[in-house]
Amino acid sequence: MKVGGEARYYIKVGTIEELREALQFAKERQLPFFILGKGSNCIFDDEGFSGLVIHNKIEFCNLNETKVEVGAGLSFSWLGTFTAKNNLSGLEFASGIPGTVGGAIYMNAGSNGLETKDFLESCNYLFQDGTLRQFDRGELQFSYRHSPFQEMKGALVSATFKLFKSEEARKRQIELIHYRKNTQPLKDCSAGCVFRNPVNAKAGALIEASGLKGAKIGGAEVSLVHANFIVNKGGATSKDIKMLIEHVSETVKEKTGHTLKKEVCFISKDGFLNL
Ligand SMILES: Cc1cc2nc3c(=O)[nH]c(=O)nc-3n(C[C@H](O)[C@H](O)[C@H](O)COP(=O)(O)OP(=O)(O)OC[C@H]3O[C@@H](n4cnc5c(N)ncnc54)[C@H](O)[C@@H]3O)c2cc1C
């Protein structure tokens, strides 16, 4: 979103060994650490982050028949396009989601009725104590924008997806990209959908019905294109965004009776993650 202060430490890691060393560095100094994918779902505090930001750039991609094994730092959007171009179906929805594979698994990102978990076969996770473990899909309980990795301390390293052959995949992926371009504010900086959809309702529709499209605090604005996005119209601070989110929550509650839960992650100065 182009907001937030500086991190005390920052490192880019391209291999498991580098990731292990970075996690060890944080452990030895008792520093909070934060695994950064593409930051497309994150809002950092204006005061910055007092720990270590570990930027995951483990980016390999091996395609074998209908299985694709990828590094957790690989672009999820690229993967959606690449697999569709290879006539493989399952991840067309990923095309246009501006995160990494690791971020998508961690958030169980989804769209158009599909979620990251749906075609996941297994993934490898490095715990902060240095243990590398493979998790098979059957061992993992996912739900709407939730994965068990949100309760673990470490980082996703790689994943394998099992797809199926389809001549329609590329056509479907292009249709989804066009739909996204027409319905989301892609020209402005945002962190994607701010709120999760309540059961049997759409957060965007509730916000719009509450008359909040275009509502502004400082440089933060409820998007005129899609009401569940808050965009940075220039010079927004993390505080502006937080205040606008609170204003939207309170107004929607008052006008529709619905309680909205946040989908974006706020990272406080001392590393507290507010999911
Ligand atoms: C324009 C726009 C459109 C979007 N559309 C969608 C959509 O259709 N559907 C949807 O679900 N989301 C959407 N998003 C939100 C976002 O892109 C997804 O949640 C994405 O999966 C986040 O990936 P990331 O790499 O950017 O994660 P980040 O924002 O970097 O991190 C998000 C969380 O994941 C954790 N994380 C990241 N990588 C790892 C790793 N390797 N190991 C462990 N933890 C990790 C981080 O620590 C953090 O807690 C959209 C965002 C934008 C800006």
TrEMBL record:
Its cofactor is FAD. Keywords: Cell cycle, Cell division, Cell shape, Cell wall biogenesis/degradation, Cytoplasm, FAD, Flavoprotein, NADP, Oxidoreductase, Peptidoglycan synthesis. Residues 2-166 form the FAD-binding PCMH-type domain. It is found in: Cytoplasm. The keyword Membrane does not apply. Pathway: Cell wall biogenesis; peptidoglycan biosynthesis. It is an enzyme of class 1 (oxidoreductase). It catalyses: UDP-N-acetyl-alpha-D-muramate + NADP(+) = UDP-N-acetyl-3-O-(1-carboxyvinyl)-alpha-D-glucosamine + NADPH + H(+). InterPro entries: FAD-bd_PCMH (IPR016166), FAD-bd_PCMH-like_sf (IPR036318), FAD-bd_PCMH_sub1 (IPR016167), FAD-bd_PCMH_sub2 (IPR016169), MurB (IPR003170), MurB_C (IPR011601), MurB_C_sf (IPR036635), Oxid_FAD_bind_N (IPR006094). Cell wall formation. Belongs to the MurB family. NCBIfam families: murB (TIGR00179), PRK13905.1 (NF010480). This is UDP-N-acetylenolpyruvoylglucosamine reductase. The lineage of its organism: Bacteria, Pseudomonadati, Chlamydiota, Chlamydiia, Parachlamydiales.
